[in-house]
């Protein structure tokens, strides 16, 4: 983003003038989003398109309208489309407040000057941990994000299976590997594994890296500041390779839903998932049997300090003409009451505010809340902790390739590194 | 016909256009040309222009010269597999699916029993979008829950039809060909029905075998249909997208140029310059076929 090398820079206008009419195709989507009413209400861009979250959010905003006597208008867009169109959305006429993710993916927009600074609101906030504040802060040290809920990643298993076979919860990586070996002998797939969609396996990489090399190394690796050919990274892939024989075969052709089903059917023993994932594939009767343990320790220097817990929340658009009204809404959303209102209807997440009541939580939620509140550091997830183009264009492919052929670690890391250089040099 | 020739015969000298004629021609030609320039050539040139830049869709556009192409050819592992797959697609549809469609058309045209039934059954997949064919392929080929593995009954070591990067492209090609064959068949069937029966009779009186009759007499008279089928096959192969996108977003062995363009341009990735460079490669490949086709066509017209 440095303002250097002026001879190689041309303004957007000059280029588009040069390529004339074609610009219309680029500008068109911007125009499409640019329709809005003059009303007093605060508009919210929502990516909560699934039935459960959508309803839950509607209740929250209704509560705000009642309390403040102000109007809120929610524009719900399909979750995937919202993400795919976010750039054009922000460049056009975005809603005043919109839902997004914490960490690098928020910082990226903050850096582009698309987000309004809400540090003043943060001065008044209490009940958010230091880890949460760090994830809500841009590279310039100002806050831009109001965290709302999160869901931790962990290793999920069925209690009854562990009891029946006498398996113990592994604390260290050696125990973890030994348990996997034992399950393999018992005729189980130790790890349910599906990476057809490309992202589910990232959770395992993140944890292996944070446990073996620590949170700080992981984050700077994600930020493009470390080399992927580093011995430390190769070590992570090597650890993973050691577990590969105990993973379900053919992961690149399996969806995570199918993987979770094999966990439910007791064909597999464990699986690395986020809190909302496996439960959906369990029958109502079996859901109480689902449990998780934190990813085991690899290096005692880092223990089990870091927890991967993607945080969802709200951002305030810089273009909004209703900064004051929008901030009032954000203030409300940062209260325990607002979070409780939501989570009572969507039990797949955990409140971020420390004073939010946990009375309505199920056993799994309570355990998840304990896990994240005890975390020394919170990571987001690979596709949120690094540039989205790097995650989607390089890492998805690299991990799938690793799953196909776990032995060529040198070639793989070299490949990743050279692509990383191109992508991170781009801006 | 007689009327037309008569009129043409009367119009021998050079024709003079009045001012009004010129105006009408100008407007009638001008509007389509303008639309063509705005909707086809504009975006095309914009893509070519953008392919030499780096732009994330938000900030400034930066001129980077050939860097995108450099990175594309040397430093982007999915690129060459995508090129290979696109060519494979072309070869498979052209050399397997299309001849097979022709064979079915000939068989049905000769009046096998239940030919109407076969005709409608084989044509049925054509009404499905390739995205739906992709979903159906998953139901059939899924490793754990697919129909094919259930039928084969190899539960212990099931074949990973769609997850194995050496295998999945062939499964997808079969699914794509399933649809393409019906399309080709219906086109040839229409063509075969219009072949004059007396030609075949004459050939058989002259002592030609069936194969000779077909390859020397029938197929050449089908030239217009052949051209259409060829064009459709090339287009289908180059624009292939939806079926692999439905199956696994075009990764892990199912890379295609069209998918790489989309992945890089749409979404937060927004490597618009880089994506445009891939689009330009696809454009170049397409132009190769288009130019060959046009040259052939124009030559054919001159001869006729």
Topology:
The complex is a heterodimer of chains A (427) and B (304).
Chain A: H1 12-18, H2 23-33, E1 42-46, H3 51-68, E2 72-76, H4 79-84, H5 86-91, E3 97-101, H6 104-111, H7 119-124, H8 130-135, E4 145-150, E5 153-158, H9 159-165, H10 173-185, E6 189-191, H11 202-213, H12 215-222, H13 231-243, H14 256-264, E7 268-274, H15 276-279, E8 290-293, E9 306-308, E10 311-316, H16 323-333, H17 336-343, E11 350-351, H18 363-373, E12 377-379, H19 382-385, H20 388-404, H21 409-425
Parallel strand pairs in A: 1-2, 1-3, 6-7, 9-12
Antiparallel strand pairs in A: 3-10, 4-10, 4-11, 5-7, 5-8
Chain B: H1 2-10, H2 19-50, E1 53-54, E2 62-63, H3 67-75, H4 79-109, H5 115-123, H6 130-141, H7 147-152, H8 168-193, H9 197-205, H10 210-221, H11 223-239, H12 242-248, H13 257-265, H14 272-303
Antiparallel strand pairs in B: 1-2
Helix pairs in contact in B: 2-14, 4-8, 4-11, 6-8, 6-12, 8-11, 9-10, 11-14, 13-14
Largest beta sheet of chain A, briefly? 6 strands, mixed
Summing up helix and strand content along with how strands pair, one would put the structural category of chain A as: alpha/beta
CATH superfamily of the largest domain in chain A: Periplasmic binding protein-like II
- The helix/strand order of chain B is HHEEHHHHHHHHHHHH
């Amino acid at each position: 983003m440095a303002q250097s090398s002026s001879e190689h820079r041309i303004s957007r206008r000059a280029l588009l003038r040069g390529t004339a009419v074609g610009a219309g195709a680029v500008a068109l989507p911007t125009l499409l989003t640019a329709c809005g009413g003059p009303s007093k209400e605060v508009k919210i861009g929502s990516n909560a398109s699934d039935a459960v979250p959508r309803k839950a959010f509607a209740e929250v905003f209704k509560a705000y309208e009642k309390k403040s006597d102000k109007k809120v208008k929610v524009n719900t867009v399909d979750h995937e489309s919202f993400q795919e169109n976010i750039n054009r959305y922000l460049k056009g006429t975005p809603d005043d407040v919109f839902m997004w993710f914490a960490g690098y993916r928020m910082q990226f927009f903050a850096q582009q000057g698309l987000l309004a600074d809400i540090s003043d609101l943060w001065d008044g906030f209490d009940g958010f941990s230091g880890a949460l504040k760090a994830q809500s802060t841009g590279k310039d040290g100002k806050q831009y994000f109001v965290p709302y809920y999160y869901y931790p990643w962990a290793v999920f298993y069925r209690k009854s299976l562990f009891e029946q076979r006498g398996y113990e919860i592994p604390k260290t990586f050696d125990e973890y590997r030994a348990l996997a070996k034992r399950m393999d002998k018992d005729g189980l797939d130790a790890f349910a594994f599906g990476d057809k969609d490309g992202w589910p396996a990232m959770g395992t990489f993140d944890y292996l890296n944070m446990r073996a090399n620590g949170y700080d190394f992981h984050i700077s690796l994600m930020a493009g500041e470390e080399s992927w050919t580093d011995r430390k990274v190769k070590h992570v892939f090597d650890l993973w390779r050691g577990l590969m024989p105990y993973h379900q075969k053919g992961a690149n052709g399996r969806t995570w839903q199918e993987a979770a089903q094999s966990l439910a059917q007791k064909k597999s023993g464990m699986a690395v998932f986020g809190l909302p994932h496996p439960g959906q594939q369990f029958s109502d009767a079996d859901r109480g049997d689902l449990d998780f343990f934190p990813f085991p320790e690899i290096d005692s220097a880092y223990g089990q300090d870091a927890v991967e817990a993607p945080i969802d929340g709200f951002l305030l658009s810089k273009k909004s003409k209703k900064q004051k009204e929008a901030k009032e809404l954000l203030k409300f959303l940062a209260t325990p009451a607002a979070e409780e209102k939501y989570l009572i209807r969507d039990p797949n997440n955990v409140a971020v505010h420390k004073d939010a009541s946990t009375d309505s939580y199920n056993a799994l939620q309570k355990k998840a809340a304990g896990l994240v509140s005890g975390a020394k550091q919170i990571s987001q997830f690979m596709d949120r902790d690094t540039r989205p183009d790097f995650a989607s264009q390089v890492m998805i492919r690299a991990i799938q390739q690793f799953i196909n052929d776990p032995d060529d670690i040198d070639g793989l890391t070299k490949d990743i590194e050279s692509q990383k250089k191109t992508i991170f040099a781009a801006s | 016909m007689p009327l037309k020739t008569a009129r043409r015969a009367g119009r021998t000298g050079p024709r003079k256009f009045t001012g009004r004629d010129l105006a009408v021609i100008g407007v009638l030609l001008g509007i389509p040309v303008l639309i063509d320039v705005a909707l086809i050539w504009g975006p095309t040139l914009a893509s070519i222009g953008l392919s030499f830049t780096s732009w994330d869709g938000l900030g400034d556009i930066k001129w980077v010269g050939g860097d995108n192409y450099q990175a594309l050819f040397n430093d982007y592992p999915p690129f060459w597999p995508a090129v290979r797959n696109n060519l494979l697609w072309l070869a498979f549809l052209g050399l397997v699916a299309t001849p097979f469609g022709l064979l079915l058309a000939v068989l049905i045209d000769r009046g096998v029993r239940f030919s109407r039934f076969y005709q409608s059954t084989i044509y049925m997949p054509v009404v499905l979008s390739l995205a739906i064919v992709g979903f159906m392929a998953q139901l059939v080929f899924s490793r754990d829950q697919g129909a094919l593995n259930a039928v084969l009954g190899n539960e212990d070591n099931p074949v990973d039809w769609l997850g194995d990067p050496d295998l999945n492209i062939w499964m997808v090609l079969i699914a794509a060909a399933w649809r393409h064959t019906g399309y080709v068949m219906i086109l040839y069937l229409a063509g075969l029905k219009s072949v004059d029966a007396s030609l075949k009779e004459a050939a058989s009186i002259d002592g030609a075998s069936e194969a000779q009759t077909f390859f020397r007499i029938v197929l050449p008279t089908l030239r217009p249909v052949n051209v259409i089928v060829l064009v459709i096959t090339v287009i289908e192969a180059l624009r292939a997208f939806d079926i692999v996108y439905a199956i696994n977003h075009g990764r892990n062995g199912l890379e295609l140029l069209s998918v790489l363009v989309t992945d890089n341009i749409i979404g937060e990735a927004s490597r618009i310059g880089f994506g445009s460079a891939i689009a330009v490669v696809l454009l170049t490949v397409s132009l190769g076929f288009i130019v060959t086709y046009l040259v052939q066509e124009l030559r054919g017209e001159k001869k006729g």
